[in-house]
């Protein structure tokens, strides 16, 4: 795993927690922020996957 994969996964997990916390307290803004963080985290994780695939292909 590279740095982007790890950071992306952590942001995704944090976003899920933030979304659920927003649901618990009825705060729609926190839910939306959590979803945004999940998307950003998954995007960063996929970027890390692509970097790994490229590195593997060139070795």
TrEMBL record:
Residues 42-59 have a biased composition (Basic and acidic residues). SUPFAM superfamilies: Hypothetical protein YjbJ. It holds the Pfam family CsbD. Residues 21-59 are annotated as: Disordered. It comes from the Bacteria. Belongs to the UPF0337 (CsbD) family. This is CsbD family protein. It comes from Massilia niabensis.
